[in-house]
Amino acid sequence: MIDSFILGELAKGMALPVAVMALALVVGWRLWSPRQERRADEAGASWSLVLGLGAGWVMVKGWPNVPAVSTEDWILWFLLAAGAIGATTGWWQRRIRISMPLRAAVVALMVYLTAGPNTQTNQDVWVIVGLVLVIVLTWVLLDDQRRRLPEPLSLWGLATAAGCGGLAIINGGALPTGMSPGALGQMMGLLFLGVLLLPAKTAGGAPAVFHCVYTACLLLNGYWYAQYVPIWAVAGIFLSPLLGYLYLVPGLARGPAWLRWGLPMLAVLALAMTLAILCNFPPESAEDAYGYGY
Amino acid sequence: MKRSLFLAAIAAMILTSGPRLHAETYKIDTVHSGVTFQIMHNGVNYVPGMFTKFEGTIVFDKDDPAKNELDLTIDTNSIFTGNMKRDQHLKGPDFFNVKQFPTATFKSTSVKQNDDETYSVTGDLTMLGKTNTVTIKAKFIGENSTDSGVVIGGWGEFKLTRSLFGMDYGVGKIGDDVIVKLHVQAMKS
């Protein structure tokens, strides 16, 4: 049975943000009006994610300290950055001279500020450079997926990764931090249903932006500061949406639709969920004879 | 006249050669001291815990309390409550966030003597990057000469409101006020 305290936290950190996002999405997508430009849909989806996630974060963690006291104080700012970038992807994405430096700059800033005290040695600097490269490359690949895969399939991967990322962080010992990606997972799930049921609507490039800026920021916070969120879990969960490329495997392309859709969806879910469950702070031991209830 | 000068010289010698009354610095003997705390849980019970690593100094002058000082640095990663899972959770971002804030510090700003044995030590407590003023009710137990040197000892207690430091996880189920107790033995440096 789940403790009422945990239920209360989940209501503030996950149910409320999803409700806010859903309401904002109705307005952002102008669901009463069947015709709207795709760029407006993209902006509507992006800002609805910002409103929902922002409401949840402030309810659970309060307003950030200015100037920042801990690395979590940057999260809300990167949420706003993700919102602004996500709302305008239609404009900048095809301008390579803008898009690549923009991605690199935002991700580098996010990783550097999230690393906080983890930037003491030269070795740490190389770890940060490596992380930036991996995240930017993933961002480029997710945009490529968006062009080559059905949109619901891309959204399924991002929803699963965010949700499982939240579970991993909560399992790793940081409930308030983990609830936000958990909520994002549900919001991406709503977008998944939205574009599945209303094919005229789109979330555009916004979900990939949120994955590479917001989810990545929270996963890195979990890895660096929670007690048991190992790097293999963070990396595997973050990269899991790339399994969507299974949709393009030549053998599958000629197979039935349920298999072509089902295999990548199942693969992403299996990988991300397994990694999230394996995060459990700390591993059970004989010393922990009394268990621990909140 | 000669007799007066002689008496004045004797008096001056007595005044200057007697035991010097001034503040001495003492280092906290961590083996024989402790930093413990207790916090309300479910509104029915105080759950105890302690920090096993800390260090600090005391400047003590029994005759001039205004000169007294207390500096204490606690290693937050040394928190111990007797349950490994809970300790790991307490070290994480929900509570002490030890990787970003490895220490909590107290630095006194004023000391007021209440009576022969008790003092009010007011100072800045810094935790999770935020500083708030707390007042320790301290009791001086005594001073002793041992084989190792001169030691002083006493205890202190103060209450802090953890949400003021941004540690508001579980407030309601877990108390917001934390009672901290210091058991201090310190050796003259």
Question: Can you characterise this structure?
Answer:
The complex is a heterodimer of chains A (294) and B (189). By secondary structure, chain A is an all-alpha fold. Helices cover 72% and strands 0% of the residues of chain A. The longest helix of chain A is centred in the middle third of the chain and has 27 residues. The two termini of chain A are 12 Å apart. About 2% of the residues of chain A have low confidence. The longest helix of chain B has 16 residues. An eight-stranded antiparallel barrel of chain B has the order 1-4-5-7-8-9-10-11. In chain B, a hairpin with an 8-residue loop joins strand 4 and strand 5. In chain B, 30% of the residues are buried. Chain B has two helices and eleven strands, in the order H-E-E-E-E-E-E-H-E-E-E-E-E. In chain B, 13% of the residues lie in helices and 54% in strands. The termini of chain B are far apart. Chain B is mostly beta strands. Chains A and B meet through helix 8 and helix 9 of A and helix 2 of B.
Short description:
Chain A is mostly helical and 294 residues long. Chain A has twelve helices and no strands.
Percent of residues of chain B in beta strands? Answer: over 45%
Overall average residue pLDDT of chain B? 90
Low-confidence stretches of chain A are: 285-291
How far apart are the first and last residues' alpha carbons of chain B, in Å? 46 Å
Mean pLDDT of chain A: 90
Cα gyration radius of chain B (Å): 21 Å
Biggest interface, residues from each chain: A-B, 31 and 24 residues
Main sheet specs of chain A:
none
Number of DSSP helical runs of chain B: 2
Shape of chain A: globular
Specify the structural class of chain A.
mainly alpha
Order of helices and strands of chain B: HEEEEEEHEEEEE
Individual helix count of chain A: 12
Strand content of chain A: under 5%
Number of strands of chain A: 0
Q: What's the story with the biggest beta sheet of chain B? A: 8 strands, antiparallel, barrel
